[in-house]
Amino acid sequence: MTKPFMFEKPLGMRDTLPVLYETKVKARNEMSDEIKKWGYQFIETPALEYHETIGEASAILDQQLFKLLDSEGHTLVLRPDMTAPIARVAASKL
């Protein structure tokens, strides 16, 4: 394996430069305002979840999940979408 060049991004990652960033922020704010008008509220969940939380509930194949181990040896995954985390919050907090 070759050593990555210090100015390269990992495969699949991209930078968002100022013009596109401002366009995205404007669109996000407009969508947020519209969603709030309909009475919905927002929640935020961690980017990492326990593998057991995501696991079979995800439509993403297990080998396609980005996995890490925490200091206690639990497998964590980078959430592929918001479905399982929202279900976890609804089942445990609401």
Considering the chains and any ligands shown, give keywords for the structure.
94 residues, alpha+beta, 3-stranded antiparallel beta sheet, 3 helices
The main pleated sheet reads as: 3 strands, antiparallel
Tell me the fraction of residues in β-strands, as a range. 5-15%
Helices and strands, in order, run as HEHEEH
Structural class assignment: alpha+beta
Question: Span between N and C termini?
Answer: 47 Å
Task: Calculate Rg over CA atoms.
Answer: 17 Å
Q: What is the mean pLDDT?
A: 89
Q: Could you say how many structural domains there are in total?
A: 1
Count the strands?
3
Separate helix tally = 3
CA-based shape: flat
Residue share in helix: 25-40%
Poorly predicted parts = none
Q: Which strand order does the major sheet show?
A: 1-3-2
Overview of this protein structure:
With 94 residues, the chain is an alpha+beta fold. It has one domain (18-92). Helices cover 36% and strands 11% of the residues. It has 3 helices and 3 strands; from the N terminus they run αβαββα. Strands 1-3-2 form a 3-stranded antiparallel beta sheet. The longest helix is centred in the first third of the chain and has 20 residues, at 18-37. The radius of gyration is 17 Å and the shape is flat. The termini are far apart. The model has no long low-confidence stretch (mean pLDDT 89).
